[in-house]
Specification:
This protein is of the alpha+beta class. 41% of the residues lie in helices and 17% in strands. A four-stranded antiparallel β-sheet has the order 1-2-4-3. Helix 3 packs across helix 4. The longest helix is centred in the C-terminal third of the chain and has 10 residues.
């Protein structure tokens, strides 16, 4: 059986870096800024922004109306945030632009 995680890496003689430990403490967060107008996000980031669970994002993504992912980043689907945000505002999951929260 293959052991995973930081403890397994240290047992094999490979140490985690301080930046890897810091990322682990902060939680998994992937936002890719393509240009000044395009942010790419995965389900975990969508969940944080919509204040729902990542599992709920996956359920919504498999239903009608949710934007199609642009592709994959590792095993994670990747969406353009502007498309998800538009969908969220149209479905009432985010307040309309220009309205107070």
């Amino acid at each position: 059986m293959l052991a995973c995680g930081a403890a397994a890496l240290e047992r094999r003689g490979t140490r985690t870096t301080a930046s890897q430990r810091a990322r682990r403490r902060q939680g998994y967060r992937v936002v890719v800024q393509v240009d000044s107008r395009t942010e790419l996000v995965i389900a975990v980031e969508i969940a944080k922004r919509l204040q729902i669970s990542p599992q709920r994002v996956n359920v919504l993504a498999s239903g009608p109306g949710f934007p199609k992912p642009l592709g994959k980043l590792g095993r994670s689907a990747v969406w353009r945030w502007s498309s998800v945000e538009r969908w969220a505002r149209q479905t009432g999951r985010l307040p309309a632009a220009g309205t107070p929260d």
